[in-house]
Amino acid sequence: MDDKPSPEALSESSERLFSFGVIADVQYADLEDGFNFQGTRRRYYRHSLLHLQGAIEDWNNESSTPCCVLQLGDIIDGYNAQYNASEKSLELVMDTFKRLKVPVHHTWGNHEFYNFSREYLTHSKLNTKFLEDQIVHHPETMPSEDYYAYHFVPFPKFRFVLLDAYDLSVLGMDQSSPKYEQCMKILREHNPNTELNSPQGLSEPQFVQFNGGFSREQLNWLNEVLTFSDTNQEKVVIVSHLPIYPDASDSVCLAWNYRDALAVIWSHECVVCFFAGHTHDGGYSEDPFGVYHISLEGVIETAPDSQAFGTVHVYPDKMTLKGRGRVPDRIMNYKKERAVHC
Predict the structure, then answer these.
(1) What is the pLDDT of residues 29-80, one digit of tens each?
(2) Which of 9, 143, 163, 320 is the most exposed place for a label (fewest CB within 10 A)?
């Protein structure tokens, strides 16, 4: 399943409908290279911005310009907060994104919350909810203001859903709020460690402070959107900072209640794939219900002589990921009954 597709398989066997870009975990900071928390993998804090610039240049120059780019979270590194450089670094990265000729949809990850409160992010340029689609006469598909999630239609019969994987979290939240108390209770019930970022000894290692989860309210909303897409024979792409499928992720990097999210997705026919970041190592798997889970390799741990981004080309019968650098090519065939007849 993880074999690299042949160039022939990636070739245009049918008419390309549209394309979109994907990139994850830029984690820019104006710092010398460092290492991950385990001290095992190098992080290229300054060079990550050059990688982003290279990706944008590539997307702008593609023969078939992508309709949009999905930024999968952790756009600047948490170290910025220690140096009072959060706003300056965010401004630098957002100025870089201005060079992109198409809209970018921003997902929020743990590093967004290391730098900013949820309230700040809601009023920042990282809130791209203004790009959402509103389905007339279906108010149940309108997301609540209590979480950062929305859906949009980049091409007829294709719906993208952006999820808030830190809807349940102790990060970026007012510590005097009932929701913070609720989330801390959930975390401590599953993680008795003094250091809440440590998964040591946990039977469910995803219950660490740098992860989060999806509220029941958000999952109910997702269910309504997918119900609409099923009824209208749409294909759906879901985006989240945190992965939700164990075979496509390190077990420590999963969303707290990933099983609940999978249960909703698996109760519908329309979902083609689920894109996430967070792991930095990347991951890929097709689940038993034919949904493809792709965790994108992180820019922050990509050497200067490589790259880490991709373009997804969408066809009536499949999607193909054309990776750059350490992001491998992938093919995501639709289930036979799901092929689009154009």
Answers:
(1) 999 999 987 889 999 999 999 999 999 999 999 998 999 999 999 999 999 9
(2) 9
Average pLDDT over the chain reads 94
The 3-state DSSP class for residue 309 equals strand
129 residue type, one letter = K
d(Cα 61, Cα 65) in Å, to the nearest integer?
7
Q: Using pLDDT thresholds of 50, 70 and 90, give the confidence band for residue 5.
A: low
Rg of the chain over Cα atoms, rounded to whole angstroms, equals 19
Say what the pLDDT of residue 38 is. 80
pLDDT digits (tens, 9 = 90+) for 192-204: 999 999 999 999 9
Q: Structural domains in the chain?
A: 18-333 (3.60.21.10)
- Across the chain, where does the E strand assignment appear? 18-23, 34-35, 42-43, 69-71, 104-106, 150-155, 158-162, 235-239, 271-280, 283-286, 292-297, 308-314, 318-325, 330-333
Backbone angles phi, psi at 319, to 5 degrees: -120, 145
As a whole number of angstroms, the distance between CA 296 and CA 242 comes to 11
DSSP states along 199-211 = -TT-SSTT-STT-
Chain mean position to CA 109? 8
